[in-house]
Design goal:
With 435 residues, this protein is an alpha+beta fold. The chain has a domain of 139 residues. The strands form four sheets. Strands 1-2-8-5-3 form a five-stranded mixed β-sheet. A three-stranded antiparallel β-sheet has the order 4-12-9. The protein has a two-stranded antiparallel ribbon with strand order 6-7. A hairpin with a 2-residue loop joins strand 6 and strand 7. The N terminus is likely disordered. Bound molecules: protoporphyrin IX containing FE. The site of protoporphyrin IX containing FE has 23 residues, from helix 13, helix 14 and helix 18.
């Protein structure tokens, strides 16, 4: 089969590309991986009339698109289904709307402020762990989702949401599947009303809307909600979009990264023993606090390495406004550019033995290119909740590991499912035991 080049970029020709797109709809993660293995770290996949997707997986590409020339890029058409459902919140808006939202939301997530959430995070984690009966098999993914939704609910919105986790999880599964299919609908048809009419999806959207309404009406305050309200800058619709955005973006990814972390720790006992040793030594039998976090370098490294192998935001995609030269790759205006953390984090020039779980990679001085590791993205659209997410994940991991151990059910494979986020597909049966 001939390789067709657009400029100097390798990739399939139009006919072959149609097959790749079909595969992409079924299993985007495996298809991105296969594209990388087949064509390398710079791939062009044509679609439509004269357009193409460029899948670029070198740090220089990510730096150029997300930082150096970020003014030339907007969120890709692939975000359209998400925008149709969650509206114009921080994650999906552009231009002035985005700037205004970021100005209001940003300060809540400033590092010096975020540490104030630590007591609530630890309290929520302790309560969750105390509910786990000793020696019983639990769905770790479900438990962790419940925990992270509870944290976001209490810390940011002053609401009790743990009881909503099961239904919310199912709604998000439905929504994510719908989003992948919706990506390929013509732009004009990808409207909220259409999704609401699709059986299943309509119910999921209704459940999430109900959740947001309960948060907005019923909450006792919660710092973030007060801020969003008080500024007087947001209309009711904008408030709803932002609350939904933060509820979803604020728990789903953290739940996935914790679930992958416990799966990996169960598979790598030496890394887990070192983690337990660090937690025992630093905490000496008490619950963790914000000021312990810097004294738990292995705990942090374990999480960082889990997010390298399984980045919850596995792909980041942009559309080019004007033509550009991305570190030597010429792309015409209107091209879609993917800089997938999933592929960047497996680039063997940077990460030897990329499938191996080696938290040592994140210990001590690191010599890598700054954009070789991008779990939270980069540039001005970098994750607003990154500091909160790391604080939460480290505190939860330390709280759980201080008293408990999670072991994967023998012989049960854990596969990934990548749609909007990369998470374990289905329940993750793990036996919980007291240490
Ligand atoms: C491990 C956990 C998390 C991961 C891996 C993650 C990852 C990311 C990534 C990669 C982006 C950039 C997307 C892009 O450039 O297209 C992003 C944006 C965002 N994240 Fe996170 N995130 C996490 C946790 C959180 C939390 C806890 C919150 C809020 C409480 C949050 C809220 C957001 C928002 C609002 C944006 C959009 C920011 C903007 O465009 O200004 N995320 N996240």
């Amino acid at each position: 089969m001939a390789l067709v080049t657009g400029g100097s970029v390798a990739g399939p020709g139009a006919v072959e590309a149609a097959r790749w797109w079909m595969r992409m709809m079924r299993d985007p993660l495996a298809t991105y991986g296969a594209l990388g293995r087949r064509y390398g770290d710079t791939v062009r996949v044509p679609f439509g009339v004269g357009r193409a997707l460029y899948v670029l997986s070198r740090p220089e590409h990510a730096e150029h698109v997300l930082v150096a020339n970020q003014d030339n890029y907007v969120k890709a058409f692939t975000y359209r289904p998400l925008r149709a459902v969650i509206g114009e919140g921080l994650l999906t808006s552009e231009g002035d709307t985005w700037r205004r939202h970021r100005r209001v939301v940003g300060p809540v997530f400033a590092q010096r402020h975020v540490v104030g959430f630590a007591p609530q995070i630890v309290e929520t984690a302790v309560a969750a762990v105390e509910r786990w009966p000793d020696g019983v098999m639990l769905d770790a993914a479900g438990e962790l989702r419940r925990l992270t939704l509870d944290v976001v609910g209490r810390a940011l919105f002053g609401s009790e949401l743990a009881g909503e986790a099961g239904r919310t999880g199912r709604s998000l599964e439905t929504l994510q599947r719908g989003a992948v299919i919706g990506t390929f609908l013509p732009g004009a048809t990808a409207k909220r009303g259409l999704y609401q009419r699709v059986p299943g999806l309509g119910g999921a959207i209704g459940q999430l809307d109900g959740l947001v309404q309960r948060v907005i009406r019923g909450s006792s305050g919660g710092e973030l909600l007060n801020l969003l309200r008080e500024g007087g800058e947001f209309s009711d619709a904008e408030l709803r979009d932002e609350v939904l955005t933060l509820l979803l973006a604020g728990h789903e990814t953290t739940a996935a990264s914790l679930a992958w972390t416990f799966v990996l720790l169960s598979r790598y006992p030496a890394a887990r023993e070192r983690l337990e040793g660090e937690v025992d030594e630093v905490l000496g039998g008490r619950d963790p606090r914000a000021d312990d976090v810097d004294r738990l370098p292995w705990t942090r490294a374990v999480l960082s390495e889990a997010m390298r192998i399984y980045p919850p935001a596995w792909t980041i995609e942009r559309d080019a406004v004007d033509g550009d030269d991305i570190a030597g790759v010429r792309v015409p205006a209107g091209s879609t550019i993917a800089v997938p953390p999933y592929l960047l984090h497996r680039n063997t020039d940077i990460w030897p033995n990329p499938e191996g779980f080696q938290p040592e990679r994140f210990m001590g001085e690191q010599q890598r290119h700054r954009y070789a590791y991008l779990p939270f993205g980069g540039g001005r659209r970098i994750c607003v909740g990154a500091g909160f997410a790391m604080l939460e994940a480290i505190l939860v991991l330390a709280t759980v590991s201080r008293t408990h151990r999670l072991d994967l059910a023998p012989g049960v494979p854990v596969r990934g499912r990548a749609e909007i986020t990369l998470r374990p597909a289905g329940p993750v049966p793990m036996r919980v035991s007291r240490r």
